[in-house]
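Table 4 source record.
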Amino acid sequence: MCRWIAYSGTPIFLSRVLFDTQHSLIDQSLHSRLGVETTNGDGFGIGWYVPDLDTPAVLRDTGPAWSDRNLHDVAHHVRSGMFFAHIRATTGTAVQQTNCHPFRKDRWLWMHNGAISEYGLLRRDLALAVDPALYAEIEGSTDSELMFYLALTFGLDDDPPTAVARMAGLVEETGRRHGVRNPLQMTVAVADGVRLWVFRYSSERASRSLFVSAEVDALRALHPDVSFLQQVAEDTRLVVSEPLGDLPGAWKEVPESSYGVIQPGLDVFEAFQPR
């Protein structure tokens, strides 16, 4: 499995959450507390949005995040108001750059923690459901990228929650047709540069961990001495596979079988059901 972070809010240096926090993503790559694997060293990736550009930038590589000098340099020199970061622990597909998250298509970024069970058995049927106009753009061999292109096929551009629900429904239907009892395990983040959608779902209703940061104004009241909280806007949010530190009141678990929309103004969390 994997660990990931999605950030939306006041532009900050990526290093602020990748390197500088108590239990940063780099620390999690070596010492994950809540993941299936303690070490996540099968590649990494970051994706970030830049004002006035239509597509996000992406940096991905196959080595472990903790020793990559390029990642360290970029993270300490790039500032963004929306970015993804992902460390990979493969569930069976090759360790190669095209299999590292996040995946990008036009303005969209996508990353995933989890797996499609018996993926080798289901892969052909699922791939045939991808829009032929999109299929040639799939570069890697992961279930995660195929899930992304299925969501694009099912209307991600117009209605992300419905598109992801239809993708999940197809995976479950296909899995059960092949005798796979619990086909899908996922926490997913997908963004278009303005809004961020996050999903927590599994066929067995025992999904991998996912947390969202508490409202900034509430945290300021609890921790007036934390300088970072004074520097960011009230709509700043982090969604993480596991908390970045032990600050009391800082993290709320995303409910099982739910999705959230992180956006300017009011965040929304709703029940999630495959279709």
